[in-house]
Amino acid sequence: MAARRKKTAAVKKPRVYLEHAEQCALMNWAAMKHFTHQVPDGRTIQLCLRDLFEASLNGAQLRGGKVQRVIQWREAEAAGAMKSASDLTLFYPVGVWHGMKIEMKKQRKDFPNPSSIRKAMKPGQAVHLHLMTRLGYHSIFCFGWVEAANAVSEYMGWPIPFNAAKFKTRFNH
Predict the structure, then answer these.
(1) Residue pair 31/23 in contact by the 8 Å Cβ criterion
(2) Which of 18, 38, 83, 123 could form a disulfide with 106 if both were Cys (CB 3.0 to 4.6 A apart)?
(3) What is the pLDDT of residue 163?
(4) Which domains does the chain have, with CATH numbers?
C-alpha cells in the first residue's frame, strides 16, 4: 500500500502594494528637499518639502471581511473621505496655483500590459483632478515616484532631478 502524502497548505506570498511603495518613496525624497521661503513680512524661513504634503487615506487597505470594510469606509466617508480624491496634496502656492494635487500609480513597468496602463485612472479620479485644476490647483497624474518627483520639481521651479520621461498626463484648463 502506498503511503498517503500529507497535504500542505500553500504558502501565501505577502501582498505588495506597489502604489503605496511608490508614494512612500516620493515622501522619502521630499523629506530630503529643504528650501528657503520668504514670508509676507519679508523674513525667510527654512522649509522641508515633506512637511507641505498631505496624503489622502483612500489607498489605505481596510481590514476584515467585506462587511467590516464597508463599515470602515462609511466611517471614513462620514469624516470626509472621498473615493476619487487625489492621493497627495502639496500645500505650496506657486504662480497662479494654490498648490498641487497628485494622483499616484505604480510604475508603468509594473502594469501587465499597455491596455491596463490606459485604464489606470478611474473616471472619478479624472473628474476630480479636472475640478481641482479649475479651482486653481496644478493637478497631475504620475506613474511612480520618479515621475512625481520630476513633476514636483518642475512645479517648484527646480531642476528636474531624474533623467526619466516627464509625466505623461496633465490637467490644464
Answers:
(1) no
(2) 18
(3) 77
(4) 18-171 (3.40.1350.10)
